[in-house]
Structures are given as C-alpha cells and as structure tokens.
Amino acid sequence: MLRKQKTYGLSLKEEIVQNTAAYLIFDDTVINKKYANKIDSEAPLKEALVRRKYSGNEHQVIRGIGIVNCIYFNPETEQFWILDYRIYDPDSDKKT
Q1: Is the pLDDT score of 47 beyond 60?
Q2: For the chain, how many structural domains are there in total?
Q3: Regarding beta strands 23-32 and 51-55, do their DSSP bridges make them parallel or antiparallel, or are they unpaired?
Q4: Among 57, 68, 78, 89, which is most exposed with the fewest C-beta within 10 angstroms?
C-alpha cells in the first residue's frame, strides 16, 4: 500500500481495518552506517544524523541512524499500517 502513496497517519484512517484485538506498536531501529561519518542534505538540515547508538542486532554500540516507527497491527487480518515515523535527531528537533 505504501508503494502507491507516501502518506501516513490521518490519511490512512479510512483504509485501516480496526479491531479491538489490534496492537499499536512502537519500534526503534538503528540503521548501521559504519562507513558514514555524516549524512548531509542540500536542504536546511545539515546536522549529522549518524551517531553512536546501541544496536540490539549487533549487541554493541555502532554508528547508525536511529528511527522510531509507530505501527498499527491487526492480528485477525494480519495487516499492518505505518502510522508515523521519526528520525532520532535531538540536535534539530529539540524533543529527544
């Protein structure tokens, strides 16, 4: 579904098959970037997104990009919808 459109959250409200047995899942993931020191963009965001973070997959601290996903999962239909995501960037968002 997300291949067709790149919208999240409220725009998915009509497409989500709601269920009282459903789960709201928050997942934090670290994407390994061991060969990258800094990821820049041409846009106003010039801070480094690559930082040292603990990776449960590697069982150690690695250089990577942290992402938190919010997912709605319906176990009866075995469908899931990505409601939102955030890139861990405390230098820019002043929230984390």
Answers
A1: no
A2: 1
A3: unpaired
A4: 78
CA dist 20 to 15, 36, 51, 52, Å? 16, 43, 39, 39
Q: What residue type is 50 in one-letter code? A: V
Residue 81 region by backbone torsions, left for phi larger than 0, else alpha for psi between -120 and 50, else beta: beta
**Sign of the CA dihedral 50, 52, 53, 58?**
positive
Domain span at residue 80? 19-90
pLDDT at 36 over 50: yes
Q: Is residue 51 part of a domain?
A: yes
Residue 38 lies in a domain: yes
Cα atoms found within 13 Å of the Cα of residue 90, Cβ hemisphere only: 5
